[in-house]
Amino acid sequence: MTADTGRWIRNFVDGRFVDPDERSSFTKVDPATGAVHARVHEADEPLVDRAVAAARRALDDGWARTPVRERAALLRRAADRIEERFEEFVAAEIADTGKPVTQARELDVARAVANFRTFADVVAAAGQESFLTDLAGGRQALNYAVRKPLGVVAVIVPWNLPLLLLTWKIAPALACGNAVVVKPSEETPSTATLLAEVLAEAGLPAGVYNVVHGFGGGSAGEYVTSHPGIDGVTFTGSSATGSHVMKTVAPRVRPVSFELGGKNAAVVFDDVDIDEALDGLTRSVFTNTGQVCLCTERVYVQRSVFDEIAGGLVERARGLRLGRPLDEATTTGPLISQTHRDKVLHYFDLAEQAGAEVITGGGVPRLGEGLDGGSWIEPTLWTGLTNSDRVVREEIFGPVAALIPFDTEAEAISLANDTDYGLAASVWTNDLRRGHRVAQSMNVGMAWVNTWFLRDLRSPFGGVGLSGIGREGGESSLHFYTEPTNVCVQL
Ligand code: NAD
């Protein structure tokens, strides 16, 4: 069984790849060059029906009742198989996204392996709640909650860290005994498809993992989320789409887990170790060309070190190396598509209209070497903006940040929390007490002190406000992917 027939990327339903249909397909472009690298079979509504039915059958045929230790062992085998086929996954991720090979290896594919191993451990170690209830007359009752799989889960994921974000959901969903219908982003169909092979090789029964390709509204995304056979939706993507999906599932009152957009702040105090802060800020603004939901787009800097931080960040931004993804020296890839670049460039215009000073970047680079058809953009920093400017309020999702000065701790907290989003924040200071105090006062799901995107996969991940609903990670994932039945026994 192979995922690719020539340059076709196929749907995977009920344990088999579905033969492609020329009439309903779309092309997938390599964002580094602009060249078409594959044709993707778009799933129609009947195929989504088949995927949901196959998932239900797999549950009923026994997957939902598989012993936990068997499911954990299967997850570990999947992790081993990804490691064995590591470079295939790296190549597939690069072909879809144009991201640098070093990042694909060290972040995207490495984290996919870690996701499977972590959730194998988490599910194997999980206990269950029980309470002894005192009753009148000295008798007692025993209450215990049995956790059952949620059922058929729709998994809708974006394009920025495709395999990482997919496995972040698939691993706990399968660990808990669910069957899934996955709709990868139309921009990144490859690794979800390759994962179908790996999971089958690891021994996952047919129908437990299904992949349907396509777009959102009027396509596979909508067919899956509106399907009456779906028991819940786990979604990572933009806040606008999340809101739409919520409306879609509302009539049938299905649970949702939403990991949505961000407009994340960094707060830099003047007691900080400047070089360490600059290294961390550079990562937090520019990793994956700024296309990580956790990326910093607002940098608040205490006034006395503002110029030094601004100058240091400009220097580091100019030191980033845009180039061929397979060149190990490349640090920064293209944006995902020309459409997304148009969106980011629109914010460049808005920044200019708002009177920003562009302290580095601000345009489209000319890279030559066959890369000029790609969706490249310059790492860009602005000063002179305020929290009332759209550029500082709306998620841009590019390698960009606005640098804004502050004077006091209270002002910094108020500026950082002045947003409709609430995903992540980072605080940079050598004062330990202040680090804890400010991090705890951030109105976000995740706050880091003197670091960024350092994850323990057992800890909760998610956001508040426009950034999402619910938490995944460790036990939080087990809670979303299961439903408890409380049993009360009078003793
Ligand atoms: P998007 O919302 O456009 O698309 C996400 C997924 O939803 C895609 O698979 C898409 O095809 C699908 N979709 C679109 N419309 C749909 C509809 N009507 N019904 C069902 N499915 C639909 O997001 P994107 O551009 O792919 O990703 C970037 C966004 O994702 C950013 O906002 C980013 O912050 C967010 N994100 C959040 C996290 C997090 O953990 N909080 C992580 C990564 C990305």
UniProtKB/TrEMBL annotation:
Q: What is its EC number?
A: 1.2.1.85
Give the transmembrane region(s): none
Asked whether the keyword Transmembrane is assigned, the reply is no
Q: Name one GO molecular function term.
A: oxidoreductase activity
Q: What class of enzyme is it?
A: oxidoreductase
Positions of the catalytic residues? E259
Pfam short name (any one)? Aldedh
Q: Which UniProt keywords apply?
A: NAD, Oxidoreductase
Aldehyde dehydrogenase domain: from which residue to which, for each copy?
17-486
Keyword NAD in record: yes
Q: Which family does it belong to?
A: Belongs to the aldehyde dehydrogenase family.
Tell me which PANTHER family the record gives.
Answer: 2-AMINOMUCONIC SEMIALDEHYDE DEHYDROGENASE
Q: What is this protein called?
A: 2-hydroxymuconic semialdehyde dehydrogenase
